[in-house]
Amino acid sequence: MEHRLHSIRRRFDRSAKASYDAHARVQRVMADELVRSLARRKQGSGETRPHLLEIGCGTGLLTEMLLRDWPDAVITALDIAPAMLEAAERRIRSKASSTAANQRLPVNFRLADAEAWAAQAEPLSFDLIVSNACFQWLASPQETLRHLRLLLRPGGLLTFTTFGPETFRELHESFAAVYRSRSLEPQRHGLAFPSAGEWRTLLQHAGFEEARDESVIRTEGYTSVSEFLHSVKATGASASAADASRGLGWRSLFAGMFREYEKRFSAPEGISATYQLLLLQAEVPS
């Protein structure tokens, strides 16, 4: 577990210091949709100063939107990567009305593993918990959702975006073709993404009510497979080589995948990549 957390932290630290925001086009779309989904909630909210928890704030893209739409909220924002938190703090400080170095930020940024933090936090602390493009990284989603359920006050809402199983369909089909061409069983490369139905089941088992979901298929274009993989890496994810020791070396595997991808999914302007974007919301009984 510790090795896994260290690996994730290292990836996102590297991304924050490089060009995360420049490559996070899809993540921005997801953040926009998440905020849109909260508009009705905000209009009907009777809370004068709601308490919000953001899980996996990254460089502060969603944090900035939440501050814009919920200026009176008390916001706690968590992230596992120090460099991401530093970037988020710079973003929010740059938007503040004062430029004083000792100005208190309108967000309480916390360096923390969200799963461990949620298990130890004070119950009934928040009216709203949000997360953008983060829950696919949860090691124990069922247990974590139960902990988040306990953090929400009666009538509270959990809403998050994540990626669905159709994400990177072209990449997975290309890898699978290489394995089959060598009479080997295909292996999964990168994260496995639960479906919307699987998330709804997890939410219901965690004690949430009225779990709802939206799913959108989005196609992104890239000039080449190399550019696509670079963009994925720049946002902290990875098309890892899985276990390439079963008679298929790393170089041979990726060379074959490149060929298959370009053969199957090329267009005049480059190649395409599918993203399935999921938005889920669930409430705590009043």
Can you tell me about this structure?
- This protein is of the alpha/beta class.
- The chain has helices at 2-17, 20-23, 25-44, 61-69, 82-95, 114-120, 141-151, 169-181, 196-205, 225-234, 250-265; strands spanning 51-55, 74-79, 107-111, 126-132, 152-163, 209-222, 266-267, 270-283.
- Strand 7 and strand 8 form a beta hairpin.
- The mean pLDDT is 90.
Number of extended strands: 8
Estimate the strand proportion: 15-25%
What is the percent of helical residues?
40-55%
Poorly predicted runs of 5 or more residues? none
Major beta sheet, specifics?
8 strands, mixed
Helix/strand/pairing class, anyone?
Answer: alpha/beta
The N- and C-terminal alpha carbons lie at a distance of 36 Å
Estimate the mean pLDDT confidence: 90
Order of helices and strands: HHHEHEHEHEHEHHEHHEE
What is the number of helical segments per DSSP (H or I, 4+ residues)? 11
Please give the radius of gyration in angstroms: 20 Å
Principal-axis shape: globular
